[in-house]
Amino acid sequence: MTYGTQSDRLRVAAMAKLKKLSISEYLLQFIRDDYRAVYGETPPEKLDARVQC
């Protein structure tokens, strides 16, 4: 993980370990659960969610 502070990285590592997941698996699960809570089963391709630079 390259984003966030050292404390953020330690927090996410602790949470991933608690759930017996890798950090990547934990973050993907978090994103998918959060997305589902907001958008339900709407495919992301149907949303205008492009990153604005």
Please characterize this protein's 3D structure:
- This is CopG family transcriptional regulator.
- This protein is mostly helical and 53 residues long.
- The chain has one domain.
- The protein contains two helices and no strands.
- The radius of gyration is 14 Å and the shape is extended.
Q: For the CA atoms, what is the radius of gyration?
A: 14 Å
Number of helices: 2
Q: Helical proportion?
A: 55-70%
Flag low-confidence runs. Answer: none
Order of helices and strands: HH
Strand-pairing-aware structural class: mainly alpha
Characterize the overall form: extended
| Gap from first CA to last CA | 22 Å
Q: What is the count of structural domains?
A: 1
Mean pLDDT: 90
Work out the strand percent.
Answer: under 5%
The total of beta strands comes to 0
Most strands sheet: none
Organism: Methylobacterium jeotgali
Protein name: CopG family transcriptional regulator
Element layout with pairings:
Elements: H1 6-18, H2 23-39
Helix pairs in contact: 1-2
Summarize the structure.
Helices cover 57% and strands 0% of the residues. With 53 residues, the chain is mostly helical. This is CopG family transcriptional regulator.
Annotation keywords:
mainly alpha, extended, CopG family transcriptional regulator, 53 residues, 57% helix, single chain, 2 helices
